Amino acid sequence: MKPSIISAIMVALAIFLTSSITAIANKESDRILIGLDADISSGSAKSGEAIRRGAVLAIDEINKNGGVLGKQLTLVVRDHRGNPARGIDNIKELSQMQNLAAVIGGLHTPVAMAELEIVHESKVIYLCPWAAGTPVVANGFNPNYVFRVSVRDQFAGGFLAKKTLEKGYRRAALVLEQTGWGRSNNKAMTSALQSAGFTPAAVLWFNWGIDDFTDLILKAKESGAEVILFVANAPEGIAMIKSMASLPADQRLPVFSHWGITGGSFFDMTKEYLEKIDLVFLQTYSFINPVFPDRSHRLFKAYQNKYTDVNSPADIFAPAGTAHAYDLVHLLRLAMEQAGTIQQPAVRDALEKITSYNGIMKNYQPPFTRDRHDALTADDFIIARYNKQGHIIPITD
Amino acid sequence: MAEKKKTETAMRFMPLVMIKIVPVAVLILVTVWLAARWTAIQTVQDEVEKSLMTNTQHSADAVSDHMHQLEESITLLASNDLIVNSLVDMTDRNNYLPTFFQSLRIPGPENVRMTLVDYRGRPIVSNYNDQSGDFRDAPWLKKVMTGKDIVKFTRHGLLIVKPVFYFNMAEGAIIVEYDRKAVSEILQIVSHGFEHAVIHETEGVLESSFSESEKTLSLSVKKGSKWLYRQKKIPGYTELTLIFSMSKDQAHMQLDRLDRLLLIAMIIDLAALVLGIGLSARTAARPLSIIIDRIHSIRESRQLKLKMPLVGSREFQELAQAFNNTGEELEKTQAKLLSSAIETGRAQLSAMVLHNIGNAITPLQVLLNKNKKNDNQTRLAYLAKCYESLKDNADDLDRYINDDPRGAQIFKYMGELIDTLKTSGRQDQEKIEIGIDHISEILSLQQNYAANATELKESVDFNEFIRDALKMQKTAIENRGITINSEFSDHLPRLAFEKNKLMQVVINFIKNSCEAMDELPDKNVEKIIHIKTFLLETAIGFEISDTGIGIEPSKIDSLFQFGRSEKGSSGMGLYYSKMFIENNHGTITFTSPGKGKGATVRVLFELQEKTK
Predict the structure, then answer these.
(1) Which one of A336, B39, B64, B241 has the minimum C-beta count within 10 Å?
(2) Model pTM?
(3) Among all residues of chain A, which has the CA nearest to that of B164?
(4) Any idea what DSSP says for residue B452?
């Protein structure tokens, strides 16, 4: 073969490759990426999946309607397993992606708090559909890139404390995980109780990975507590319920739990014990008794079409995560549309300037302001419990 | 005195023991020692091998246990909820974790570096300050984050990595690093005097007590020429091989020590044996002494009735009892023999008497026959012829007597016949008288020495006694043409004997001398029996010498043994004679210059007090 022919072939091949890469690049640039950084595989994996489903349902709706700024939205999922180190790395990775519009976070407050620095350093919009730690939003960064449609512990602690008082309990023991989330709730719950003229009977801490709560329960009992205010995720929630159930009936205490326990396989792992325990927990949304039944029904239908494992609204696990993520993606869409760009500082500013949005959760008027990046308040919270099928049933009385 | 005797007996007994028992005992002891030594050496070798095997196994297990403990401690640390929580919570991580880490103590070596890293190998906290523990590029990181442990020995030390799990997933890791010195401490092996080494399959020698260089270590050991060794994979850590070894020289030193011990033990055993035998000999001396003395006494006195006292140990008592039983049986046998001998002697005497009487009667018969058949017939025939001649000439008797010469002859002859008949009658009378006298004498002698049922001792004149014996044997002596030379000592004292038995003895000696003549090959040799009696200061005796066939001196002792006779008889004569003489406080000696040179028997009897 002559050198000239080889050269020609090489040139043709180079031209082909260059054009292919350009085409791929153009295709990528046609998409707006939304990152999801949540626990997808660990103890609170169901929370991650619930969030993912909410985001996907919203993205599908948006894409179906032509996308944003003429571009389709794509969800890029990263699993942090509740591990802050993984979360930070995920944020770093996602922030390097072209056309990234925002990152949706997960259940874990500690991960979210660990990510704050890189989030703000990278100027990545961080949409928080679950992590309730007050400092996640009240983080001190200015401008603040974190926007939340979820519980704020500052409100949740007070809400749960108030609910115990409503049920006639006067002495509550706080059992909290030794994380920023736990500390956040300690502050909120203690403050709420003090506002009502009470103090915690005891404040008891535990670490992640604890597998036996017996000592803590007995200490709470010894302190004279009538009820436990519990702040934990699913793995520790499972351990608490098992320990409680193993105690004699007269040693057991009612548990008012934060919603972190619902983020994993809590029910599957505790269903045989739950009958013995008086357990209620915080929720923000239920497809069973929604605030806006039409919106809820529409979303349920979309959900049912997308995910065939659901037959009824009660089958939707961790509904709050799904609803929060759904609303957050739509709020992001509005912000991008208002900003006319996906540049995150501009979109961030736009998020603060959305005047109203009728979401699945509520009619946001406005959802966020310059000084308020939490879209929900205590008025949006409900109390729920598991029925025998594992459905989260709101308690209406 | 008794003690001295016992000692003498023991001293007499000791050489026997030393010569006959001790060598055998020593031989047995040495054989046993050699067998024990061989067994002991085999046992020691087996023990060394077994000890090597056991120690290798135990040490491998110990190292394994130690390693497992370390791992368990680190696993426990990795599952500590503060550690888990610190992966999640920055407050914990910043506020509590450094203090917690600084205060951590893992069982084992002090010099250990511990680091908590996140899932990417980035350090979260460590117990040392150089902060050099970045493990992001560690080749094992991915493996750890899939939940696997890392236990890795290197030339620099030991690395143990345990994942920190949250909800069954590895989210970080505890890394524990031991330097070489710490590894030596971990692998510290109680070697029980053996050389040992821990060899990693790729990193080589990790720990060794061998003096050889690492490079040649395994070769030296495994060559097997210099070393006994065992090797064992550390359970759970199969990349590690533990070698326990002992040089063969060292093993041999143990054997040498054992050998010396065995030798000392044998010498002590030997000394104890000799001492024991000596003591036993001394202990046995008393009963032995008694038994030996009693045996001598019985032998000297010929009193089998004497009983052996039942003294000493059971064995000696049984021996004495057996001896007594045997003595009783011997006594009975001896009595039977004596009875037989006496009967035999009597029979011999009777035969001898009858023979002598026969000898005396024979001339009478000859005389009668001669008278009857020859002379008297001739004389009667001639007398009848004279009678017929006279009858024929009765008519003319005068002429015939006076004139006829035959008549005159008849008268003359008749006169001579009458004279002859007178002389012959007188001679026959004399011969008959002599014969009858001889028979009477023999019968008288026999009557004199005839045994009674209860024979008593009688005073005996030796000279007369010997003469009587010769008379009794006269015919046998004369028939053989033997010349008797007698030499009788005067004034011999008399001694008391059972005469019949003594006569049997003396006749037995004379008879033996006569028979010794018969055996002479040269019939022309002069046959002489010399008999003499004599008196010594304390004894009286007689001696009978002959010029008979004699005997080889070497065979003399056997003459007196029961059942030994060259003549084909029972040999009881001399045996009985000796027994009789010794029972009467006498001695008998038999001498002969040799075959064909005659023999002498000499008998001495102690003079009895009364006699003295």
Answers:
(1) B39
(2) 0.59
(3) A209
(4) P
